[in-house]
Design brief:
alpha/beta; seven-stranded mixed β-sheet; 9 strands; binds zinc ion
């Protein structure tokens, strides 16, 4: 459905002594060389897909991440089966990745600022959004509200998990409603879109960021190019679902290289902190009441 969405792009972490080929510029490079550059091609800046662990390491302050809700695992309420049963697919994904969910979430600091974070891992069932992933995101938002801090989601997903049907679609509204609670508290939500961010994920929380940033050349959209072409019956512009095109047309706020992500986030949270303080001073309710009394007594 999404064309080359499932292309083999992730750097194989279990074969660190091998040579790898960049899928974009076809250069042959030593794994260690690419790893040292945070899995970015030194020749053409192609951003390889990386695991949730690697992503967290590259974004948060060193040693600050504490994983939460890692005991949550999906059940199979619909007893769903296509070519394989959902239960079997979960087992296989668990064996392949050592995880029970496509989201890794927890508490951390970025530039010394406390932040709650949820990161998608495309290697677990295509980073699909199911009930566990939705619940982890909502719990992360609740912790952010409790701690009065910001929230980040790094998306890498093919969309809602079809094996959970309505249960997975429900996560779109559940997460959006929770983000509205965060918004009402005046706390920032930063959405980071990585390759690929598609389907129900792009149609819900991924596009609700106060700031939406993307990695270079990431595939971002709802349906795949072929499906849209068949539906609307027109030729689509070249690269219309890539970060650069979306930035040019105002759908995202900035494109940030993986190497600059930590610093950019640190700067933004510093800025948000200053803004929050400023607002508190101007609109302090007590001072308004005092002023009213002053006016009355005069
Ligand atoms: Zn390259």
């Amino acid at each position: 459905m999404f064309g080359n969405l499932f292309k083999k792009d992730e750097v194989k972490e279990e074969t660190p002594n091998q040579w790898i080929k960049c899928p974009k510029c076809t250069s042959l490079m030593y794994y260690k060389e690419v790893e040292a550059k945070q899995h970015v091609c030194p020749k053409c800046n192609h951003h390889f897909r990386i695991s949730a662990q690697k992503r967290i390491e590259s974004i948060v302050d060193e040693g600050s991440f504490v994983e939460m809700d890692d005991n949550l695992a999906p059940i199979d309420p619909l007893k769903f089966s296509d070519k394989k049963s959902y239960k079997k697919r979960i087992e296989e994904a668990k064996e392949k990745t050592g995880k029970t969910s496509s989201v890794m979430s927890g508490s951390c600091t970025i530039g010394g600022n406390p932040v709650e974070i949820a990161v998608f891992d495309f290697s677990f069932m295509g980073g699909s959004l199911g009930s566990v992933e939705g619940e982890k995101i909502v719990r992360g938002i609740s912790r952010a509200i409790e701690k009065n801090c910001g929230f980040i989601i790094v998306s890498a997903s093919g969309g809602a998990r079809m094996q959970e049907s309505t249960y997975s679609l429900l996560q779109m509204s559940k997460t959006s409603a929770a983000l509205n609670r965060l918004h009402q508290k005046g706390l920032p939500f930063i959405s980071i879109l990585t390759d690929p961010t598609m389907g129900g994920v792009s149609a819900s929380f991924a596009m609700l960021g106060d700031i939406i940033m993307a990695e270079p050349d990431a595939l971002i959209g709802f349906a795949g190019q072929r499906v849209i072409k068949q539906t609307v019956g027109v030729d689509l512009p070249e690269g219309f679902q890539r970060s650069e095109f979306l930035l040019e047309h105002g759908l995202i706020d900035m494109i940030v290289n993986r190497d600059d992500m930590h610093q950019t986030l640190s700067d933004l949270f510093k800025l948000f902190k200053k803004e929050t303080k400023k607002i508190e001073t101007v609109y302090e309710p007590e001072s308004i009441v005092e002023n009213e009394e002053d006016t009355v007594s005069k």
